[in-house]
């Protein structure tokens, strides 16, 4: 064993390898990508043996490939981000009915916030929809243990199992003890056993549904009683007079002088935030001499099927429970269901009552504030006659005035708080619980919390630059977007974007993305625009990795149905946004093999696209000409903008700005918005007067030379990247005479470029 | 518990700095957690790394630091220092580089972003807070973790007053050589350690650099640390 500092995703990879996983596959997506990369790295280093790892063309391909391997008895691991499961869902729904062979674990990373995603969908919900068990870690260490347990659970019941971490687990690091060398588990004798059960027919589906329902009931029992899983649903008590903080399992003993009346339920990383918040409240309350009520805490690490037995024991004798979880109100609804099923005299507080964030991330500070108010309110109502029925949360407070446990008026707090701003640096202190509002109220925990958080009196209220994510300096996408917009000048057009770095083409000044929906959607949406608004021109931008993942079917649709749209394929030889993963167009695999790449123009030709042009996006004039030719072509057409991602190449010499020529017109900035060019009001030159001048940030400039072609005064000097400015006559694809597409690749290619395929995002971290 | 927040702009190296701190904490036998910004937000965006060390044997639950409780905020860019200011504990240390990184939005905007204004405002804010705390006889808003703080630090009733350490990073880079710009993250770590509010020594920091940084860059980073300590020790 060796001790290593590992990011959550790296630790998950080690855990799966230690569990003897045989096949790992997925499609990149933040925050999930590093798991597959870690397996590939450990395999390349010889530490992970007897394992196959691959980036599949998309999530559906990955899961179906893994299903086959699982039928043979292999332990398999699928990885994706939350929206990736949408793509793989067709396979998952049926796979659950048919059942699995070797352990089949789906690692699906959710992204509350969202920080890098299109949706805030909750994979715990997906689990219950698909009737697939879900494990939900509160810390990376717990996730490590869950990954191993998930393989055992899968094999015990022949069910796929979802391990669902969230971004703060995926990207949090701590030290782990891991095996120095791992081996895939030997496959069972005989391999795949032919059996009618593997063929899904209606009758088989009916049988399978019964198997699913039976095993879900058994798994819920396991979650509550089998120590291998019950360990993930920790119950303990705290607060109050006594110091008895003991783990209570399977039937809560009424130990200690005072049994608690209030409870806290938390799932995922919210359990860590809630425990942190409780530590903070208890430490401060003890110093201030304010009592903290005795409480019971349940962390739910196995949300589906819900461990109702554990929850019932937890809820015994409680009057109020508050639930903290991110995304949907899954645990809260389960607690409500439990209350209804067992007729419990229990009030459940959470998202549905406006007492927890209804979306976005939770934080320690937000939970601390809400817990303070929850404790105040429940203490106050305990001192007064209980109001009749409902989930009253102390809406009338007048009668509670003189009590020792005075509640902060509920009316001062909006029923449903707005989502916190994306920056975590903004204060999330509670409305209506400012220090001033609370200080006069002796014994208020809400006021105490408000006095701790955000009480540093430090402030900066001046303007700060906003830093939206931007295309890198030298990014070839910048030239592609600019050229297409130039070629479209004077025409009404809709520009359909897609998922990848090039979504950033929406920002000013490029302003070249009118729509973005989901992977591959731009290709097909453009066709809908063409049908509905035939007078306009539609251009769909798609990246090379997205092309293979989900654009080809849409392109076939355009050719088949004769839609007059132009596909702008932004080929930068990598999956850039997620950290430079290889894909079918690179010819490189995670196992280190190299074979003839699948060539985008050959695919387009094979699908029947009649006009396929090429351009080097750094070469402005020829790019505009090539874009114009494709746009003017009647029927589906394509232009391939080809130049490598700057993360794959060495920077070229930065451009220079001639102080004698620069007029300070800002054209370079307002046309292409490259972060490598700034504007300094203090610079002076003969042509710029007192306006100031543009300057080059030589640390960022990649030397692509696009700006040299944009400056109307030739004030910027530098060579054009990726082979220089091309002749204006556009290059058109000439079909490869070999019908089986095995010959040399013609047209504009990456050959001769020394590209570094395969990301080292994990190693470099912040560099990307 | 020692909480250190690293703030900067994507590409400045907050992630590596967090790893080096985590390594140093691990070498002391402390539990440590770090959390970073990865993905879309880091492309020219503002990024933070949270480093949490259980320096008194406490359990560290959350991967993220709670606003108002960071013992040290290290900013690689002054605007990012201002953005991270709400995280600083009442008696915390703010170390910031003073050279601005201009985003494209600033070049497009009519209101320029001037680093000097931000640094001056930060200095005023921390000075005002320090004066307030020194003047106060009682009733200081208690630092959430004041009981674990180094009691020898100056201040009223054992609570240290906030400390502002602006670092002229251009001057440091001039002194340490042009290539040291890439070591700005390590230079600022060294400045923070040299302030004595973190129970780590410069030697422990250097050992962590040797353990975490690629071998070909170790010497460069160690030299940068020496330059920083010579100026801010």
UniProtKB/TrEMBL annotation, chain B:
Keywords linked to the UniProt accession: Oxidoreductase
- Recorded GO terms, molecular function? oxidoreductase activity, acting on the aldehyde or oxo group of donors
The chain positions of domain Pyruvate/ketoisovalerate oxidoreductase catalytic read 10-229
Please indicate if the UniProt record lists Acetylation as a keyword: no
What the entry lists under SUPFAM superfamilies is as follows: Pyruvate-ferredoxin oxidoreductase, PFOR, domain III
Has the keyword Metal-binding been applied to this entry? no
Instruction: Look up the domain of life of the source.
Output: Bacteria
User: Under what name is this protein listed?
Assistant: Pyruvate/ketoisovalerate oxidoreductase catalytic domain-containing protein
Recite the lineage of the species.
Bacteria, Bacillati, Actinomycetota, Coriobacteriia, Eggerthellales
